[in-house]
Specification:
Residues about 5-70 have low confidence and may be disordered. Helices cover about 30% and strands about 20% of the residues. It has an 8-stranded mixed sheet with strand order 2-3-1-25-24-21-22-23, sandwiched between helices. The protein has about 575 residues and is an alpha/beta fold. It is elongated.
């Protein structure tokens, strides 16, 4: 059976909303369709919207076995396909998982294990390693995607304007003991030296005085400056802890952050190394750039403009929120970006620790309202860098991020240099799935507020169609939502509403498929799409049925968006509810 909601944009003489109801007993009450009245734009363009509610059956084939259309392939990654076969629709995890790739997980075998464990996006931190090393990792991931059927996106994280230590030569962390004296220097040397750390910037100690406190990675270890000789600092460890490769540090005086002008590249002008890393990422065909220390929207706009002129594919820009200034300009940064990363480690240096939970929730809510995916990062399972099980507080922290409807969770040191990266990923996977199940049981989705995005009437119609589609899907208790999309916009609007059933996004654009790996609840599939919406629906349903991914009696809500063509001069958007027979 099929239920259809259609919106047609055309040069009609009037706008109307019409409802046709088939007198069959079907649960379609209280659906809240929103558009009435007439709207005329200055250029004379008008929109006609029509709602049709009816019932039709999926046609049976001439045999009992459903055969995929000739030449048809189902571009579903092997992990999602396996999970769907074993767990069913309700068992699919909706929160996406990002893993930072480092020395501990850069082999082809380890990358495959992470992909099998549910890694959706692989993050490469350009603070560490050479471009040759990163190139090798990127090509291994692409090899796994092509040969093993994975769909793991690649994100490059730029170094940005920050002071940090050069990789200290150790493969993982270095323990610092209370009372030990360490030398911090900008002098360049190869390998490692006892009790010595090399800073990445010659002027790192400018304005620093004896008695100032040096804090590593927001509190992983603490020192006090005991002596300053030229540009070198001799520091005594006051709080023992771990010193990670490329650790960032900050200076404090009288309980306040020491703010200085390092003459480093500003937020608008990326460093020479950053631009070289960006060009490297473009050449290697990465899917995301995470832009560090974004304080204003202009830096995001500049990079997106540069990418549009340099890259043949669509590369998304994720802005990292990690400073007080970025919080002051949060809404404009979110609007300019393709996504946001809540970098809690650096952010926790600039704002009081007790404010981090509420700031995190505010950022997540703003991103969801603006229809931008958001990643919660930093120290989610920090203890698992060294230990095989997390603390209960860390599990509670992960659960809270899932409860807040973050699109993605990210492992940093846990996967990059930790001894238990695969176990840490499994903890994220299990905790996310459990919290999502609880949210469905508690019907928390109904508590979400909806911020209006569209300015033009066609955009508003698209937005409302997706809002209503999710409301229908939840009230009818459908098993899945299918959406057909070129650029992923309708899929993202559906995801924004955090529906109970998973969203299967069918697209014929590879960049769109990889970008949707960061969207909550979206399972992207790469397929051939035509201008015939009904043909697309029929083909995809038959393909999934042929693989045993949908079965008789399953109910699927279908949302499609077809652009105007010569054969179909009207832009057509529709909602259909189909029961597989």
């Amino acid at each position: 059976m099929a239920m259809v909601f259609k919106s047609m944009a055309a040069s009609s003489v009037r706008q109307s909303t019409t409802i046709f109801v088939n007198p069959l007993n079907h649960r379609v009450s209280n659906l809240g369709f929103c558009y009435k009245g007439e709207q005329k734009w200055k250029n004379g363009f008008k929109v006609s919207a029509t709602v049709e509610l009816g019932v039709e059956g999926l046609k049976r084939t001439t045999s009992n076995v459903v055969v995929p259309l000739e030449g048809g392939t189902l571009g579903l990654d092997m992990v999602s396909e396996g999970d769907l076969m074993v767990k069913g629709f309700k068992g699919l995890r909706k929160t996406k998982l990002v893993c930072t790739v480092g020395p501990a997980c850069s082999s082809l075998e380890d990358l495959e294990k992470l992909a099998l464990g549910g890694m959706n996006v692989a993050r490469l931190n350009m603070c560490h390693g050479t471009r040759e090393w990163h190139r090798d990792v990127i090509r291994k991931i692409k090899k796994l995607n092509e040969e093993k059927g994975f769909s793991v996106s690649v994100m490059i994280d730029t170094e940005g304007s920050q002071i940090h230590v050069v990789d200290h030569g150790a493969p993982s962390s270095v323990k610092v003991e209370e009372g030990s004296i360490w030398l911090f220097t900008a002098d360049k040397y190869e390998g490692s030296r006892p009790l010595t750390f090399q800073a990445n910037y010659p002027g790192f100690s400018e304005g620093i005085e004896v008695g100032d406190e040096l804090v590593i990675d927001g509190g992983m270890a603490c020192f006090v400056v005991t002596e300053k000789i030229g540009k070198d600092l001799h520091c005594k460890c006051t709080d023992a802890g771990l010193f990670l490769p490329g650790a960032k540090f900050s200076f404090w005086r009288d309980g306040k952050l020491v703010r200085r002008n390092y003459n480093l590249p500003t937020d608008r002008t990326l460093s020479t190394k950053d631009w070289a890393d960006i060009n490297f990422g473009i050449a290697e065909g990465v899917d995301f750039f995470a832009l560090s220390f974004v304080n204003h929207a202009d830096s995001v706009k500049d990079l997106k403009k540069y990418l549009s002129g340099k890259s043949t594919k669509s590369i998304k820009v994720v802005a990292k929120i990690e400073s007080l200034e970025s919080l002051h300009n949060l809404e404009e940064i979110v609007k300019a970006s393709d996504g946001i990363m809540v970098a809690r480690g650096d952010l926790g240096v600039e704002i009081p620790l007790e404010q981090i939970p509420t700031v995190q929730e505010d950022i997540i809510n703003i991103c969801r309202q603006q229809n931008k995916p958001v990643i919660v990062a930093s120290q989610l399972l920090q203890s698992m860098v060294e230990y095989p099980t997390p603390t209960r507080a860390e599990v509670a922290d992960v659960s809270e991020a899932v409860r807040q409807y973050a699109d993605a969770l990210m492992l940093s040191a846990e996967s990059a240099i930790g001894s238990f990266g695969q176990k840490a990923l499994a903890v994220l996977d299990m905790t996310s799935s459990r919290m999502e199940s609880w949210s469905r049981e508690e019907n928390r989705q109904s508590l979400l507020d909806h911020h209006k995005l569209g300015a033009s009437l066609p955009d508003c119609i698209t937005e409302q169609i997706c809002n209503c589609a999710v409301e229908m899907a939840n009230k009818l208790g459908v098993d899945a939502i299918f959406v057909y999309t070129k650029h992923g916009y309708m899929a993202s609007l559906l995801s924004r509403n955090r529906p109970d059933p998973p969203i299967f996004a069918f697209t014929d654009d590879e960049s769109t498929r990889m970008a949707l790996n960061l969207q909550w609840g979206v399972v992207p599939l790469l397929v051939d799409l035509s201008d015939d919406a009904e043909s697309n629906i029929s083909k995809s349903v038959q393909l999934m049925k042929s693989k045993g991914l949908i079965n008789k009696g399953d109910v699927v809500l279908v949302v499609s968006d077809v652009a105007p063509t010569r054969s179909t001069p009207m832009a057509l958007q529709s909602i259909q509810v189909k029961t597989i027979i």
